[in-house]
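Can anyone check this?
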Amino acid sequence: MQHIESERLILRDFREMDADDLYRYASDPEIGPPAGWKPHASRAESLAIIRMFLADDNVWAIERKSDGRVIGSLGLHKDKWRNLPDARMFGYVLAQDCWGHGYMTEAVRRAMSYGFLDLNLQLMSVSHYTFNDRSRRVIEKCGFVYEGTMRKTFLRYDGAVFDEAIYSITKEEWLARRSIS
């Protein structure tokens, strides 16, 4: 992924040396399950995930400039709802001790700018499980438009089945909102 920066964050490729930081937040039982994945059981599991991110080249490590710590990840993936070549879908996770500081909103907004201006994407989408209010707030703050809720879209590792609220924003909508702010 292209290295990009915002005021407080660096969005960059993961490095194998980030395994401790990733394990620190990915082992937290409050992090993975709301996103649909099992908490990491070991540093080795986190390292394997980093290697997968590097091979797929569609996930940024979110590094906090103030201390160099990797506090989360932000993926810009093929849109699972659309087969358009110029549409991408966000996925993200943030360390619990960093919640409520605006980091994820800052990271997503910077990635939106990169996607629309540098990659010339025409649409970006994002979704959250309907119980995940923190994710919903990030999505709303970033200006995404609610499209609807799909029922029973995801079977989690523990057998729980979730509904998914889906949002998108077009390049034209994003540009219009940008000119207003």
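Reply from J.R.: I decoded it. Residues 103-118 form the longest helix (16 residues).
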